[in-house]
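1st attempt posting a full record on here, be nice pls
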Amino acid sequence: MKTNLLLPIWLIYCCLACCLVQAQDQKQGQTKKYSYPQKSLKALRVQQTPKIDGILDESIWQEAEIATQFIKNRPNPGPIEKHPTEVRILYDDAAIYIGAVMHDVSQDSIYRELGRRDDLGNTDFFGVFLDTYLDELNGFGFFITPAGVQLDARYSSNGEDWSWNAVWESSARLNKTSWVAEFKIPYSAIRFSSKAEQVWGLNFMRNRQSTREGFFWNYVDPAIDGFANQWGKLEGLQNIEAPLRLSLTPYISAFMERYPVEQEGTGNITHKQDYNLSGGLDLKYGINDAFTLDMTLVPDFSQVQSDNRVLNLSPFEQQFSENRPFFLEGTELFNKGGFFYSRRIGGRPVNASLIDNELYQDYKVIENPIETKMINGTKISGRTESGLGIGIFNAVVGEQYATLEDAEGNKVELKTQPLTNYNIAVFDQSLKNNSYITLVNTNVMRQGSAYDANLTGMLFRIANKGNKYAVDGKAALSQKFDAGDVEHGYMYSIGAGKVSGNFQINASHVLRSDKYDPNDMGILFTNNSSAQELNLAYNFYEPFWKLLNLYTNAGAVYERRYLPDDFQNFVIYGNVNGTFKNFMSAGLSVNLEPVVTNDFFEPRVDGRVYAYPVNHTLNGWVSTDYRKKLALDVGVNYRAFKENNRQNFSYEISPRYRVNNQLSFAYSFESGNRQDDMGYVSRVKYEDEQGNLLRDPDVVFGLRKVNSVNNTLSGSYIFNNRMSLRLRAWHNWSKVIYSDFFMLQHNGSLEPYKYEPEESPDLNYNSFNLDMVYSWWFAPGSEISIVWKNAFEENVHVVEPRYVDNFSHTLRAPQSSTFSIKVLYYLDYLTLKRKLAKP
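the predicted structure (as tokens):
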């Protein structure tokens, strides 16, 4: 596809969008517009606790007010449910109780696939949402499926956080033409004010999977920005008090590791084994009715899911997902503004590159840990009656050393990580109309001569009364303290637009100075830039033609260098995606870079630039109906450049098969091919005998062919709603073959270059992970888990051209494996007190 076709493609997209807008406008003239008043429900105080068994047979349930007449949110928003849902709420001095009956046609129409906790599969579910401070921004969500699987989440201006877990009781039961859900949510699981009379935000949700319909008790209009601001109210709560919230979760862990070791002087590989028995403790303490202290002592992260490591040819670090529970649960406050990247804590030692110093070039590396060890972590978080959220997070990471050995066998230890303290403090004030203002401070202090870092940021969002228009912004100052010298950097962004309705528009500006660096506790790939963006969207929330919904947007980004003030990039983009009436979803996107980009990062040398060629990208995807036993996701990406025959093509095929409600498999195959790719290879230095640079180094680029293949296979067998077995295998193979080399000129162009390195720059990379996890939640908050992990990673300069040979080599090669057993037991002070008080 030639570049001169880009403009016609863009025009066709815009014309199509205009036609769809006109068609929707015509249809809206014939379509009923839905508008519902805010609902309220009164809770009933009881003296006798109902039994949580999924049978609402206590007479007190019939005395409570009924919440019914749920309103459809998807696929066509607005109509009242045909199969009624009835919900009642009771409360006493210890907990709030929810009883719900979901009427249906028959048991066959009630989908009930088993899953792990917080895992929504192909199933119906019922949920309750509580905004205990009525700030219309923050809330709790509790859910259950007909199979009895629990789910819970926190809601904030950051969105939905499924990593949050609470200890609560629930039960579900199937009847002939309905299913019943019953909850007991103890006050210790949530936070609320100390007012004598409480009014909470409230909503209920029902998912009817057989028809892919979602219903809310209080209407949630998808055209309105925000979620908690569209809930109803729970009234009648009087004289309830937050209990003493104190719980301990001690753990004991047995760990065995088997890893390969090269025998000195022989090249042969043997395996060594390491055993470890350890223990630790997690503590939760309610400081008062609003604030909670969470602490972990000697945490054990040996059982977290393995990282998907790939060959990284970019100038930027690879970002990994957070899988450690302590850094996932209840961190919605700390993640505001995007200043906190929790993988920094326990990540790569800050001075890991010490082993590359020329002083140690003749030394053999005996040990060089790639991760640091966390000693303890503490979180204090909560929200006051006035809507002020306060969060303080602190973690301490211990010292780390690399061990080197010279030719005579003398060993030397290098401190690659000093004792380090990480701290973040957040003050988040909720305002009316789904608005807020937030102050964030992050601080990293290292023992000894290593540098310290600090960042202070502020963000806000102000919306009008109807939440139709909003202004948002962010600003931050970063500081680095090193041997009496302070380096300052800053950033700010401002945006404004129409955020609700079918048509939405937003304009924004962001600036990051050349010294702005939040990466000691956050993550940022590029600084030293100034960008302006305009985005327009038109969304169709109601069915039309063969579609259930359609979302479209188009925009442009213009970016310049901060210092010096040079042009950097200009991008035009467009996206369209939607769901058909047969519940197949599809999307198409286009990305145009119509002028040469000044890439200041690929050269890896300050002040140098690479003239990145004009290019365009087309991306498409299709996803079939997940209700069916066999579902399929397919994605295709094509990128063409106005340079030689340079082009990228990748595709992904991901089938998933559900054998029954307990056993399921998912497989993903990804293939990427970059033809005539151009990228950084190395720098050639010119030095005198004393090591002084004679002139600037040459920056070498290479013309290369890059191929990669990813295979992921996962499966799970769910024994019941408390016990599961999961298996996940991942293999990545990438190869890089260079054909020609070039010298980067100071104007960004490339000239042929005779490059004769000591070692071939070609690369052959293999990464393999196998994780098998058995989990049994044998009591509320208590778990036994058994984990076996296998891992292999290799990056060599001899290319093995065939995937089959690489995969076989990976399986035959010496691998590291770990086996661990971990037992956590949840101890709640109030429960223990009641048990001890019984005669």
